[in-house]
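## Example pair
The file below holds two records. Each record gives the amino-acid sequence first, followed by its structure token line.
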Amino acid sequence: MFARVITVQVDPGDIDKTISIYGDDVNPALKQREGFVGALLLGDRKSGKGVSITMWDSEESLKAGIESGFTQEQVDKFSPLLKGKPTQEDLEIFVKV
């Protein structure tokens, strides 16, 4: 399995908007993607830092999101709220409990 980790920074006052966008728009879109296994949205309400972790059944499924433009489409949903450019890492999941 593989994971895509995207880290963003938003104004702390926009945390609830960020959570709503993820839950109402991004999550349903993820569930439609082949190879999607699960996701987490982590954050710090004081600093406005957010981390999205999506899990995929294979490296091919993970890469397909970038190649098709899907990942960027999801990130763009947050663009009015973002402070700076998001960072992204693609990692292999060694252990899932």
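Second record, same layout:
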Amino acid sequence: MTAPQKKIEVKVERTIPASREEVFDAWFNAKIPGNPWNLADKYILDPKADGLFYWSMKDNAHYGRFVVVDRPNRIQNTWVSRSTHGEETMVTIEFKSQGEDTVMTLVHSDLPDTEDGRGHEKGWNYFLNIFPEQFGKK
């Protein structure tokens, strides 16, 4: 019997100059840079509870199921990819108002404590460094 593999969590947070509704909706809009769907070569997106998603970029497939889609507060979905070694992980995104801005917090949990698993921190930071740039102050 093998010992259970250690799991890690990645947390990324950004303040975005837009309302929660705008930020939430933009996360699912494949035309907006900074969300995973935008860079996909192919994607399927059904953003509702028990809806499925699939996206691939350069033959690296990611897929899962939405557990919670609570506009404009929270999104939670499973996440499986080559980098999770085929194991199901969980992504939770929360949107909280801060004045006229939105604090977007993404937590990716149950990742394997491997180089591939730790690489999700770099990946999510890449997306969330680009995403806020799509919003300008009114």
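Notes on the second record: Strands lie at 7-16, 42-45, 52-57, 60-70, 74-81, 89-98, 101-112. Helices lie at 20-27, 115-130.
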